[in-house]
């Protein structure tokens, strides 16, 4: 059957993969995700194309498949704190390659790579119109060396583009500027029309699914393999269909829908599954609404939250300044190849879930996890069990005080409707004379510089500034933990009276310590709801009915008096919208003089500086020492419970001067009052390894009263840091492992959560379940992830000091999802036998483990190709 067809638009002819001819009547039964994957494998799969095509079509029989297919995305998207470690790896591998006589320039990306610089800006200054400029100055002061390293990459790597600080959050940048939805591509002398596809080194990459671009998040290690031409290998994915009906009611916002979707989907096992939205309700949602929902994909545990291309996609492309010719190209291509959304279509899915949009109510999530949805009136009850006895003081922060109120994150600031709603609420509050109490740290950090323009045009920026929500930066800020110091009243009340303060933010994660290392409670909310809680200054109220403040005349002001109507939002949006904002806003940010004047090397091999506290050559970016698989006995260096996130494993927030990492940096001349954040130190493995598992909520269950970041060295019985214990075990030639509960590694995509564990010498992680990206990152570092059988979690195993675990993982007998024998040998001579399952999904992952990790595999592949050319 012929797979290649032609497509004519605006006088130009393109080759296409003709999906209607390939799949015939079966095309309407296929999930839209599978249609895009089918196009990809037929165009890029080479010898695997026919086998992969047959597998994708055969999937329709029962909605499942064990067949592996390759996927080659058009491009890669990164941010500065995942790009940094990847670049350190590349620089290290270039050095390693040169040392064996190879050409280091062979290590060069073969697909376009875009990098945003968004994860470092911190909220040092807030509450004034000068905050943005002051925070930008501090960002360059702190990160000049790291940014110079990124500029080295632009000087020496082709197809590698860095968008400097101030250009916004990567996912908003992708939505507003980088994504094409469909594009043209030259290959072997032919001009192709193809879907826009990508992978990104951030778990929220699926936000772009909101406008019909198939993409998902991976760790930096997996992205590096794609850099150098290796496909992403996956089983023909299970796709869960979420059927939407009805429409959102007055007063209900996209954030509310996203939190309900997250709550419902977290109750389903979505590991390595994709999610696709379909049904008539999809057509009632704007592209902005969809992007908010898709952004929460890692929070509900899937690979994607895909919304197919339709009229709302086209409308969004026009509104954000894409050319009329391109918009026409996108629509005609999507219709021609059968990836244009039909709301009446009922594809075949692995399983389905139905949501009536009319039933969605205003929602929050918290106080510890994004899937824990609550009604907005239930905040006081939600934190009741977390509070400690504390004396209340009138006029000062008490239990439930809002310490941080942040309109932050790509999740909600990429949708103008939500920011405009916040501005309208601020306007009404300002008219009543309301402002937040003095202890609330307020901030507004939009996803792109266009936000400032449309808020100002609508006359709402001044209103937001009047109630404390001036723009502090165009980056992740509070959402990623760069919230800066707490206000003095909150810090004092915590130290002297032990109050439980909370954060309220429009972000996507509220894990304890995520927003700020001292905050254990946080609520996710829509931007206008963030403003409302900031004005109230506490969550110890029913925000729907209790007064959140009093007017200058003493009149109680309730939320119903402030909440904007849909018609008011529409009117303000009409005043704010200007298609001419987008290109000039980005061009101005990208013309940054500070960025232009940064010094950077131009050499092929990076000139390592042994005195640097930011960029150090990593020990793992080499040809390696061989596989970590095998038959061995190991000591549990760490035993933890459920929901250990990558934030718990490898923090992103501020480095404390009192920590081991802080002491290491201070010894090397760093300022103890400003040690920057861990996210900025990811190019220095010695700093990062000292921060592992130091989140104050982490409990090492191998013993009692073990401080976070520490363990008991079994042979000596001494309590010491994980890093010190790891060195001792290594010197004694003893293996170590980690044991964990459910959802181990949930949260951010950061590969440092796996790199750090690898530096501890960990050979395997045994957990009841793993989050997808972290599972792959472990494999990428050569570490075997093993799923424990039900009933054999950390609590039931009750491991104690001196217990060892015997693992039978012979490299020759490792296959995807194979059984692995595990024996727990107790110190008292008893033993427990169990059978674990290798959390390996593909044969490509098996090869990575046998090679000892993805970096040795890349280096060996480069050498092999060079020797055959």
Structural class: alpha/beta
How is the largest sheet built, in terms of strand order? 23-26-27-28-31-30-29
The percent of residues in helical segments reads: 25-40%
In total, how many beta strands? 31
Model regions low in confidence, pLDDT < 50 over at least 5 residues: none
What is the count of DSSP helices, taking H or I runs of 4+ residues? 32
Distance between the termini: 34 Å
Shape: globular
Which strand-content bin applies to the residues? 15-25%
Radius of gyration: 26 Å
Average of the residue pLDDT scores: 95
Largest sheet: 7 strands, mixed, barrel
Task: Explain how this protein is built.
- With 869 residues, the protein is α/β, with parallel strands linked by helices.
- A seven-stranded mixed β-barrel has the order 23-26-27-28-31-30-29. A five-stranded parallel β-sheet has the order 6-5-4-9-10, sandwiched between helices. A four-stranded parallel β-sheet has the order 18-17-19-20, with helices on one face.
- Helix 15 packs parallel to helix 19 (527-536).
């Amino acid at each position: 059957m012929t797979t290649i067809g032609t497509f004519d638009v605006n006088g130009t002819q393109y080759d296409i993969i003709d999906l209607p001819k390939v799949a015939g009547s079966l095309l309407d039964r296929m999930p839209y995700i599978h249609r895009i994957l089918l196009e990809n494998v037929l165009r890029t799969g080479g010898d695997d194309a026919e086998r992969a095509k047959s597998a994708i079509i055969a999937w329709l029989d029962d909605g499942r498949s064990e067949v592996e297919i390759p996927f080659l995305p058009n491009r890669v998207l990164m941010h500065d704190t995942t790009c940094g470690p990847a670049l350190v790896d590349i620089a290290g591998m270039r050095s390693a390659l040169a040392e064996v006589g190879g050409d280091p320039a062979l290590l060069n990306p073969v697909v376009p790579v875009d990098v945003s610089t968004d994860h470092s800006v911190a909220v040092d200054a807030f509450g004034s119109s000068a905050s943005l400029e002051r925070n930008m100055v501090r960002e360059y002061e702190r990160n000049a060396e790291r940014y110079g390293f990124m500029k080295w990459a632009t000087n020496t790597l082709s197809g590698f583009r860095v968008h400097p600080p101030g250009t916004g959050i990567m996912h908003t940048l992708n939505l507003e500027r980088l994504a094409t939805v469909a594009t043209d591509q030259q290959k072997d002398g032919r001009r192709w029309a193809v879907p826009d596809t990508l992978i990104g080194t951030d778990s929220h990459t699926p936000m772009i699914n909101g406008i019909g671009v198939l993409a998902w998040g991976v760790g930096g290690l997996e992205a590096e393999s794609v850099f150098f031409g290796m496909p992403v290998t996956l089983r023909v994915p299970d796709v869960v269909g979420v059927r939407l009906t009805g429409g959102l009611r007055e007063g209900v916002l996209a954030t509310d829908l996203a939190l309900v979707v997250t709550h419902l989907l977290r109750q389903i096992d979505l590991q390595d599954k994709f999610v696709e939205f379909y049904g008539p309700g999809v057509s009632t949602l704007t592209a902005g609404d969809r992007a908010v929902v898709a952004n929460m994909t890692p929070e509900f545990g899937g690979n994607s939250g895909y919304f197919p291309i339709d009229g709302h996609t086209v409308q969004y492309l026009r509104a954000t300044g894409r050319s009329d010719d391109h918009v026409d190209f996108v629509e005609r291509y999507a219709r021609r190849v059968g990836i244009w959304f039909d709301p009446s279509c009922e594809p075949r899915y692995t399983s389905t879930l139905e949501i009536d949009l009319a039933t969605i109510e205003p929602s929050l999530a918290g106080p510890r996890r994004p899937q824990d949805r609550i009604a907005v009136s239930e905040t006081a009850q939600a934190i009741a069990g977390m509070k400690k006895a504390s004396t209340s003081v009138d006029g000062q922060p008490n239990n439930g005080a809002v310490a941080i109120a942040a309109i932050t994150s790509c999740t909600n600031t990429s949708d103008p409707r939500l920011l405009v709603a916040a501005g309208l609420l601020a306007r009404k509050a300002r008219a009543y004379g309301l402002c937040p109490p003095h202890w609330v740290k307020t901030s507004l950090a939009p996803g792109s510089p266009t936000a400032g323009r449309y808020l100002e045009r609508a006359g709402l920026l001044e209103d937001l500034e009047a109630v404390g929500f001036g723009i502090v930066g165009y980056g992740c800020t509070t959402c990623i933990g760069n919230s800066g110091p707490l206000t003095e009243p909150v810090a004092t009340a915590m130290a002297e009276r032990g109050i439980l303060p909370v954060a309220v933010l429009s972000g996507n994660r509220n894990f304890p310590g995520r927003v700020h290392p001292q905050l254990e409670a946080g609520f996710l909310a829509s931007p206008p709801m963030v403003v409302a809680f900031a004005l109230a200054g506490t969550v110890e109220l029913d925000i729907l009915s209790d007064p959140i403040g009093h007017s200058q005349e003493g009149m109680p002001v309730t939320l119903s008096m402030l909440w904007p109507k849909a018609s008011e939002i529409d009117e303000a949006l009409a005043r704010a919208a200007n298609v001419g904002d987008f290109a000039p806003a980005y061009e101005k940010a990208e013309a940054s003089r500070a960025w232009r004047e940064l010094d950077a090397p131009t050499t092929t091999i990076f000139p390592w500086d042994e005195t640097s506290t930011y960029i150090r050559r990593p020990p793992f970016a080499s040809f390696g020492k061989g596989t970590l698989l095998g038959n061995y006995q190991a000591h549990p260096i760490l035993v933890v419970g459920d929901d250990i996130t990558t934030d718990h494993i490898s923090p992103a927030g501020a480095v404390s001067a009192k920590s081991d990492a802080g002491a290491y940096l201070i010894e090397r001349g760093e300022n103890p009052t400003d040690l920057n954040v861990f996210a900025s130190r990811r190019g220095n493995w010695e700093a990062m390894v000292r921060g592992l598992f130091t989140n104050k909520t982490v409990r090492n269950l191998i013993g009692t009263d073990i401080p976070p970041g520490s363990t008991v060295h079994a042979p000596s019985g001494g309590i010491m840091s994980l890093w010190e214990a790891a060195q001792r075990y290594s010197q004694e030639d003893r293996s170590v492992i980690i044991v964990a509960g459910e959802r181990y590694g949930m949260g951010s995509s950061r590969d440092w959560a796996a790199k750090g564990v690898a530096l501890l010498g960990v050979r395997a992680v045994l957990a009841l379940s793993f989050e997808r990206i972290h599972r792959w990152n472990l494999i990428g570092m050569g570490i075997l992830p093993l799923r424990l059988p039900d009933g054999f979690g950390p609590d039931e195993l009750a491991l104690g000091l001196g217990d060892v675990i015997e693992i039978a993982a012979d490299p020759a007998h490792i296959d995807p999802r194979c059984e692995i024998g595990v024996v727990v040998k107790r110190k008292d001579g008893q033993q427990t036998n169990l059978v674990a399952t290798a959390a390996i999904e593909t044969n490509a992952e098996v090869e990575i483990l046998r090679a000892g990790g993805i970096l040795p595999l890349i280096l060996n592949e480069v050498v092999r190709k060079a020797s055959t050319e």
